[in-house]
TrEMBL record:
Coiled-coil residue windows: none
Record keyword Kinase present: yes
Any Pfam family the entry gives: LRR_8
GO CC annotation, single: membrane
GO-annotated molecular function: kinase activity
Signal peptide positions (record): 1-26
Protein name (record): LRR receptor-like serine/threonine-protein kinase
Keyword RNA-binding: no
Compartment annotation: Cell envelope; Membrane
Amino acid sequence: MAFLFACNKCLLFLVVLLLHASAAIAAAALDNSTDLASLLAFKAASTSGGGAASDNIIAANWTTDVPFGTWVGVRCSLQYPPRVVLDSFSLQGTISPHLSNLSFLSSLDLRNNSLSGTIPDTLGRLPRLATLRLSLNPLSGPIPPSIFNNMSSLVSIILSFNNLSGSLPTLVFLSHIEIISVGHNLLTGLIPADLARCSTLQEIYLGENKLTGSVPSSLGNLSELVNLSLGNNQLTGAVPTSIGNLTKLWYLYLAFNHLKGEIPKEMENLVNLQELHLDVNGIVGSIPISLCNASKMTVLDVSTNNLTGPVPATLGKSMPFLQWLRMAGNALSGGLDFIASLANCRDLNYLK
Ligand SMILES: *[C@@H]1O[C@H](CO)[C@@H](O)[C@H](O)[C@H]1NC(C)=O
Ligand SMILES: *[C@@H]1O[C@H](CO)[C@@H](O)[C@H](O)[C@H]1NC(C)=O
Ligand SMILES: *[C@@H]1O[C@H](CO)[C@@H](O)[C@H](O)[C@H]1NC(C)=O
Ligand SMILES: *[C@@H]1O[C@H](CO)[C@@H](O)[C@H](O)[C@H]1NC(C)=O
Ligand SMILES: *[C@@H]1O[C@H](CO)[C@@H](O)[C@H](O)[C@H]1NC(C)=O
Ligand SMILES: *[C@@H]1O[C@H](CO)[C@@H](O)[C@H](O)[C@H]1NC(C)=O
Ligand SMILES: *[C@@H]1O[C@H](CO)[C@@H](O)[C@H](O)[C@H]1NC(C)=O
Ligand SMILES: *[C@@H]1O[C@H](CO)[C@@H](O)[C@H](O)[C@H]1NC(C)=O
Ligand SMILES: *[C@@H]1O[C@H](CO)[C@@H](O)[C@H](O)[C@H]1NC(C)=O
Ligand SMILES: *[C@@H]1O[C@H](CO)[C@@H](O)[C@H](O)[C@H]1NC(C)=O
Ligand SMILES: *[C@@H]1O[C@H](CO)[C@@H](O)[C@H](O)[C@H]1NC(C)=O
């Protein structure tokens, strides 16, 4: 009897414990004052540019009368980590450093606003942030090193179309990163060889900057790479032969640089390549026959280089999906046999 009683008590105790536990979880969820303060600080800074009231939608919408979970652009629940998604909102102020107190933030998307000032380096403290998208703003100053070396949660960093300057920070530990997009900025300095440490990278866009130095051969280690864009910079040296190790590559844009040397014959391994842009460089030698292994090629542009020798006669035969072929502005010689093979390319609509 006593035993049974004790056991009941035990059960009751357990239930109370469970109730306490869920109450604690609920209380933690309700204690959102830090999140609220961070969001209000963000609101104050990002609407401080004096945009028209109709532009600054969040100025009117983000009021403390209603839970911030209902605010436009703020998504959060117990199940889903908070996101702040305010693309194309005409925000004209700055990005508040207090945003870093939203410690559960998983996505910050402020693309296509008029946010100016610098990217706060406190963003590097957000331990859950997977997506950081600040493209299409007039942000200036450097890319904070904390973002590149302290955020193992990051999957994509998209900072393109800003006015960011300085050099690319060294990458130390971004174990989940898939996309780095910092094109169309004012970045200078070298492409860090350490970029190759992030073996999960699939897409790299560094085009339209003022980067110098050579294309690091270490990039050949990035076996998951699909898109690589380094065009419109001031890169020198040769296309590294290690590029031939990137067998998943389908988009390679190296145009408008000062690259020299030959097209590496190792590129014969790039059988998935669909777009190759090498135009406006100082590349010498001939168009290697091995390039014809890229049977999925749709765009091939080697124009305005110093290429010599004949065009491979089987070019068109081996690239049936070719839509764009530009080779003008070289010193190519030899017969026009390749022209006949282009009859095989039914989608060809540009040839020069
Ligand atoms: C964010 O955290 C920092 C440091 O912990 C603190 O100084 C600041 O006041 C906080 N900001 C807000 C808006 O809570
Ligand atoms: C804020 O915007 C959301 C989403 O558009 C809307 O549902 C809500 O009613 C708005 N709240 C206020 C106070 O304007
Ligand atoms: C935040 O806490 C307040 C009360 O403490 C509550 O009314 C509100 O629903 C909570 N959640 C959000 C998302 O604002
Ligand atoms: C940027 O936002 C403007 C409105 O502010 C919109 O008209 C435009 O289509 C957006 N551009 C992109 C690329 O999203
Ligand atoms: C690095 O991140 C941790 C937590 O994710 C944070 O405590 C620390 O302040 C960050 N360091 C820098 C330099 O941002
Ligand atoms: C970058 O700054 C220049 C002036 O320094 C300005 O003309 C240009 O519009 C800015 N670009 C962006 C995207 O803000
Ligand atoms: C990357 O490739 C280079 C050769 O270009 C090699 O020396 C280096 O050890 C490789 N790094 C990693 C992390 O695999
Ligand atoms: C490319 O692959 C070859 C052969 O597998 C290997 O010897 C070389 O080290 C690789 N280079 C890089 C940079 O990964
Ligand atoms: C990059 O690769 C993805 C596929 O992974 C593709 O959808 C996208 O259009 C590519 N971007 C460019 C600029 O080619
Ligand atoms: C590329 O084509 C050449 C013949 O031009 C062939 O010997 C080689 O095995 C091919 N390589 C691949 C990876 O398909
Ligand atoms: C490429 O050819 C141009 C003339 O067509 C010449 O001025 C230039 O020096 C050449 N460059 C190289 C790297 O051969």
